[in-house]
Amino acid sequence: MQIERLVQMVFYIVNHGHVTARELSECFNVSTRTIYRDLNTLSIAGIPVMSTKGAGGGISIMDGYTIDKSLLSQGEQQSIYQGLQILQATKYPNAEMALSKIGAIFRNALETKWLDIDLSYWGSDEKEKVKISDLQFAIVNKHVIAVCYVNSELKESERNIEPLRLVFKSHAWYIVGYCRCKKEIRIFRLSRIRRLQVMPEIFERELPQDYSLTPDSRVACDIPYLKLKFSPEIAHRLYDEFQEDQVHLCDDGNYYVTVPYELNHWTFHYLLSFGKYVEIIEPEIARTMLQERVADILKIYT
C-alpha cells in the first residue's frame, strides 16, 4: 500500500541522511517515476523533503525535522513503550527517563499498564539485580574490561576481555567477548563475575557477522538425545522447562520427554533436581553415568 511505503520512505531517508531516487526505487521495488510521485505526496503532506543536485547531493529531509507520532499506529506506539519497559527492568541507563518522555508523547495511545517486568529471581534483594551501565559504556566505547571470573568448577581467574555484546539468553545475562587469556571469543555468564573494572585501554575488534550463540549442525550432531520418563507429580515443571511438543503424556500416566543434552556435569545436576520423579530410559550410558553420581551422593550419608 502507498501509505505504508510513504511512512517507510520517511524513516529510510531520516536514517540515511542523503539518498538517491534510484536507491529508493531499488529499496521499495518501484520505478523512479513512482518515487518522485511519492516525494511530491510527502511534500504536500507537510514533510520537508529536499532535493539537491551535484556531488554530495540527493534527496534528504530538512535538518531538525522530527517524525510526528501520528506516523506511528497505536499498536506501534504501544510496542515502543513496552520495549522501553523491558529496558527499564534491566536497569538500562536512562531507560526510566526515556520511558517517561515516550509515555507523555504517546499517552493517548497507551493502554492501561498490563506489563510488569522484573528479571531478578524470587527472594533476591536490590544488590543482586543486574546492573549493566558499565558494560554498556565498555561495549559502545570499546573499552577493555578486567574481571574476576568464577567458572563452573568454582575456580577464580583474572581475565582481560574485549566486550563485544551483552546477551540475555533463557534466564541469564552473558557477555560475548574476546578473552585475551584464551585468545578466542568466549561467553561469560554475568552472575559469575565477581569484580568488573572498565579499563582505559581501547580495542578495535568487532564481533564477526557470522557469529552465532547456537552451535553449528556439526556440533549438534554429536549431542545425544535423552529419553526421559517423568512421574505425574512433577508435571508442573515440565511445561515450564521443555517445549510443548517435547512433552508427551502416555497411557501409563507418565510423561515422556526426548531432548538433546550433552552428557556433562550440568545435565546430570539438572536431572538430579527432579529427584525420584525422573528416570533416564535411554541411552544406557546416560543411565550408568547418573547411577554413578547417585552412588557418590549415597556415600556421604552411609
Automatic annotation (TrEMBL):
It holds the Pfam family WYL. Residues 2-57 form the HTH deoR-type domain. The keyword Protein biosynthesis does not apply. It comes from the Bacteria. GO terms for molecular function: DNA-binding transcription factor activity. The keyword Transcription regulation applies. Keywords: Transcription, Transcription regulation. PANTHER family: PROTEIN PAFC, PTHR34580. This is HTH deoR-type domain-containing protein. It comes from Eubacterium plexicaudatum ASF492.
